[in-house]
Design the sequence.
């Protein structure tokens, strides 16, 4: 049985914000269609937009948390990665103060993620050292 | 953007400055071409004769880094000839006298000498832009990535206010954002000097509001910018860095220096979807989902909050970025991170950010909403500054021309410009894993003018070593008159021959943006 449907979303590349329909077949992305009713792109896409689904299933995707052990990054479970981060961050900020931490947020990530990372930086760590690649 | 993308179709004159629009923002270019079909005049100002320049009614081939001089020159002519909008200047602005005084120093003859643009073309551009009823400015990183980036932007604001080309349908100042959510990440205060919604860290009432909502005491001292953070690793006190969805080991200027800084960290946390060059230096790596595997919102270059929607399940043992940050916060024992979905996070944002107060997932629906949207029944704000500026009167800020930080000399005789190729995106972590795009181009190149190629006996396709004071890369020569003689261009998407090995980390003093658009290099044939 073939399960095919489309999901309306926004292009992940430049800031124009073209509306696109991701074509999903049996749980995998198989293509992109431009959205005609989005007033920005009005049924058009550039070549990057047309191929925006291609990198998603790349075999190079990171699939497990990694932790550096004896100089090498090794796959670990989430719990181990998260508790490593918590204990290291606590130790560093307790010794050197909150301004020894900085975060680089991302123009590739959502509003919700940017909001949470700055909230984490300001409210949990206690520093305003947060920036992102808007200047790059 | 002060205006909406589709409004550009109704502009009668569009001045494109420092934007390779057809390559970097093809759909914006589509609207510009539609305007041209309806009779709009197109002015392109750029040191490279880009694709869109070949469709321009007027192309001004400026020397790199002389934008302030050009704009001041245009304003000089516009005011001398009485082509400025006297009513707009009187009713809506202040500081016009100071601007006029400074502009005395920019007569056409001097401006032509600084910029390389003939006086007659300056006159034509000034008349075309000022005397057309609905003119718009479109600009991109060719304006901002300079040590005078802020001065460049202020000059454009001066031009639009003096001519009254702002605060109207199809008429305004329109920066094109290069990434899907530059606007949103700035709105959300992923920047060191404000709280979400551009609310001031110095305002006690604002800080109290956030402290009450988050249940903490907030730090008041502004933080460090990206380039300052890189500089402060090691001796400057930064010991731990959390990088979410960025690749500074390729994207920052002078990357050999950046890599050394990242290696000196006690803790480098990297959250990403691919094993980037920055992931390779991390102590701990958190695998995130792609845009197709999560819900959320992006904000377009024209301030439109739009949805992304989950289309497939997370690949492997990955998690949505928002969930990962909550997990880290929980591991630290922190409260305030109990969200079941991105729409709950958005509701908290709307409760604290007046620009977003009237926006919700329900209202965004299929068409998005453009901020400011202060109440639940307020409509999208299609263009900004109608009737009044948010601060009241618009202030002219006279700015003098300053030369770039590193100009060519005998040892490094060429100007290097870096930028995008139309088939790739930023450090290539996504586009270089897309077969349709790598089929078009998958290796770096340098554009060299035919006269320079002849002089240096360089042939198309030959490998050329480009060297600056910071380092060297070897790339393939493309001989093309797109660049001026004396300048070369290299795209920055290719980590193995990264343009940012060469670039100069000199910064704009105010916003700390690096001067990616100009540094000095020499060309050698690679053996």
Sequence:
């Amino acid at each position: 049985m073939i399960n095919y449907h489309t999901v309306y979303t926004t292009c992940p590349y430049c800031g124009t914000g073209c509306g696109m329909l991701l074509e999903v077949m049996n749980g995998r992305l198989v293509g992109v269609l431009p959205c005609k009713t989005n007033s920005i792109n009005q049924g058009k896409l550039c070549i990057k937009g047309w191929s925006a689904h291609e990198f998603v299933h790349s075999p190079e995707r990171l699939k497990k948390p990694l932790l550096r052990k004896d100089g090498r990054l090794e796959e670990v479970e989430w719990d181990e990665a998260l508790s490593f981060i918590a204990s290291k961050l606590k130790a560093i900020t307790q010794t050197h103060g909150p301004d020894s931490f900085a975060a680089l947020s991302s123009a590739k990530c959502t509003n919700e993620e940017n909001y949470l990372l700055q909230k984490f930086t300001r409210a949990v760590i206690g520093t305003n050292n947060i920036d992102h690649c808007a200047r790059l | 953007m002060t205006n909406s993308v589709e409004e550009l179709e109704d502009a009668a004159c569009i001045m494109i400055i420092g934007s390779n629009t057809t390559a970097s923002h093809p759909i914006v270019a589509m609207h510009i071409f539609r305007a041209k079909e309806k009779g709009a005049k197109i002015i392109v100002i750029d040191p490279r004769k880009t694709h869109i320049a070949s469709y321009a009614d007027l192309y001004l081939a400026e020397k790199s880094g002389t934008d302030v001089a050009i704009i001041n020159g245009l304003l000089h002519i516009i005011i001398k000839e009485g082509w400025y909008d006297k009513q707009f200047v009187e009713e809506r602005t202040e500081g016009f006298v100071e601007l006029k005084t400074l502009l005395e120093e920019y007569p056409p003859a001097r401006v032509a000498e600084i910029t390389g643009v003939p006086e007659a073309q300056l006159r034509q551009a000034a008349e075309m832009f000022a005397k057309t009823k609905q003119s718009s400015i479109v600009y991109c990183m060719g304006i901002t990535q300079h040590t005078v980036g802020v001065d460049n932007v202020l000059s454009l604001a001066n031009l639009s206010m003096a001519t009254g080309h702002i605060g109207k349908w199809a008429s305004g100042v329109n920066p094109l954002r290069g990434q899907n959510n530059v606007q949103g990440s700035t709105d959300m205060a992923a920047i060191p000097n404000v709280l979400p919604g551009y609310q001031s860290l110095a305002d006690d009432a604002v800080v109290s509001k956030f402290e009450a909502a988050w249940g903490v005491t907030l730090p008041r001292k502004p933080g460090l910018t990206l380039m300052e953070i890189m500089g402060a690793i090691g001796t400057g006190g930064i010991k731990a860095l959390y990088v979410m969805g960025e690749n500074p080991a390729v994207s920052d200027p002078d990357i050999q220096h950046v890599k050394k800084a990242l290696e000196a960290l006690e803790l480098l946390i990297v959250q990403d979807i691919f094993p980037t060059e920055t992931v390779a230096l991390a102590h701990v790596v958190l695998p995130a989902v792609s845009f197709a595997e999560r819900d959320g919102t992006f904000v377009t270059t024209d301030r439109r909050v739009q949805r992304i929607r989950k289309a497939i399940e997370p690949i492997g043992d990955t998690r949505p970025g928002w969930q990962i940050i909550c997990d880290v916060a929980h591991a630290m024992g922190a409260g305030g991170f109990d969200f079941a979905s991105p729409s709950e996070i958005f509701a908290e944002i709307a409760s604290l950010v007046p620009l977003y107060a009237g926006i919700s997932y329900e209202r965004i629906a299929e068409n998005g909403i453009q901020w400011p949207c202060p109440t639940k029944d307020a409509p999208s704000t299609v263009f900004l500054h109608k009737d009044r500026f948010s601060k009241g009167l618009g202030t002219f800020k006279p700015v003098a021309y300053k030369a770039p930080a590193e100009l060519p000399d005998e040892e490094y005789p060429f100007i290097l410009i870096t930028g995008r190729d139309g088939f790739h995106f930023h450090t290539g972590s996504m586009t270089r894993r897309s077969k349709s795009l790598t089929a078009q181009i998958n290796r770096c190149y340098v554009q060299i003018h035919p006269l320079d190629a002849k002089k240096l006996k360089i042939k198309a396709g030959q490998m050329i070593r480009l060297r600056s004071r910071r380092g060297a890369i070897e790339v393939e020569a493309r001989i093309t008159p797109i660049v001026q003689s004396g300048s070369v261009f290299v795209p920055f998407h290719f980590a193995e021959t990264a343009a940012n090995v060469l670039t100069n980390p000199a910064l704009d003093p105010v916003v700390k943006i690096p001067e990616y658009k100009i540094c000095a290099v020499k060309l050698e044939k690679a053996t």
Summary: The longest strand of chain B covers residues 472-479. Chain B has three domains: 5-176, 182-370, 414-525. Residues 5-176 of chain B form a domain with the Dimethylsulfoxide Reductase; domain 2 fold (CATH 3.40.228.10). The mean pLDDT of chain B is 97.
